Amino acid sequence: MEQSKLLTELLQSWEDTYKKGQLTLWIFLALKHAPKYVDEIKAFISEKTRGTLLCEEQSLYRALRKYEYINVVSFELRKGNKGPDRKYYLLTPLGEALFSEFVQRNITLFYQEEIINLLKEK
């Protein structure tokens, strides 16, 4: 197999695995500052990841139900443009604390000068 094709396949496989693990981070980030309904969460994720992470509504609903069950996300009903009320999802105080701890333990590492230098191209 030619190296560029192998590189593309390996990168795709790695990114697929990476993205599955990132969905929770991006949902929590979407809800950090304001409640959002599913279409807004989906658009936020697509925009902020520059289209590299696209998620189906079904995946978002499944994740949100799980987070609601463990009390890190809740929702409030608000009037939609037309039709039935919409569920606007928001982080609970427990969800906010969980997200804050996760970021401190896992994301802020990437702000360390040593890690920044390791990530720079040769």
From TrEMBL:
Coiled coil: none annotated. InterPro entries: Metal_resp_DNA-bind_regulator, Tscrpt_reg_PadR_N, WH-like_DNA-bd_sf, WH_DNA-bd_sf. Residues 30-99 form the Transcription regulator PadR N-terminal domain. It comes from the Bacteria. PANTHER family: PADR-FAMILY TRANSCRIPTIONAL REGULATOR, TRANSCRIPTIONAL REGULATOR RV3488. This is Transcriptional regulator, Acidobacterial, PadR-family. It comes from Capnocytophaga haemolytica.
